[in-house]
User: Which sequence fits this backbone?
């Protein structure tokens, strides 16, 4: 756990920090949305997934709602200013789904790492009240963000790295494109075959 020391008063960012917004990386957003589509779009065309009790229209509604929920989750934005860090989502995203949070710089006590089940590291801000806030790690401009955190809190963020490197999402995007090609072939075959529900 890295605890806060005295702020770096000589940093330009501590002298005057205009509100700065960091959005989720476009590469991550495109990759996850494309993967969701590749995994779900073929379902209404598959005879084994569609029957008298589960019409294709109902599947399309479910897929659409899932896409909206995913897009809402991917609308995460992080704003830093003189007062602290604020994580929020698009205005149309319900608060019970993605509530967001606000953490003043003065309330940040430490930055604590925690390993994930996949062997990576995530970090949590610990406040003086004992609450933990997950450090956003999939944003564009992550290096600049952690530099601001270090300047405002005095916490050493030298070893803090994004959870996933761009090449990982580029690889996933490549496999997603291949999956879409398989989907196109599968949908084409399903359309060409007569429906078993038709006499």
Assistant:
């Amino acid at each position: 756990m890295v605890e806060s020391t005295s702020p770096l008063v000589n940093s330009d960012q501590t002298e005057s920090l205009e509100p700065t917004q960091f959005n989720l990386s476009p590469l991550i957003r495109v990759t996850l949305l494309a993967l969701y589509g590749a995994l779900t779009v073929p379902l209404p065309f598959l005879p084994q997934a569609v029957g008298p009790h589960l019409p294709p229209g109902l599947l399309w509604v479910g897929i659409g709602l899932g896409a909206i929920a995913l897009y809402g989750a991917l609308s995460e934005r992080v704003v830093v200013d003189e007062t602290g860090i604020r994580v929020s989502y698009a205005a149309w995203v319900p608060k019970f789904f993605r509530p967001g949070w606000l953490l003043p710089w003065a309330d940040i006590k430490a930055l604590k790492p925690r390993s994930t089940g996949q062997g990576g590291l995530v970090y949590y801000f610990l406040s003086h009240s004992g609450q933990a806030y997950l450090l956003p790690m999939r944003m564009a401009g992550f290096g600049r963000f952690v530099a601001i955190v270090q300047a405002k809190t005095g916490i050493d963020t030298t070893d803090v790295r994004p959870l996933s490197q761009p090449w990982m999402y580029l690889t996933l995007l490549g496999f997603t494109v291949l999956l879409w090609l398989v989907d196109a072939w599968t949908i084409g075959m399903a359309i060409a075959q007569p429906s078993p529900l038709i006499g």
The mean pLDDT is 85.
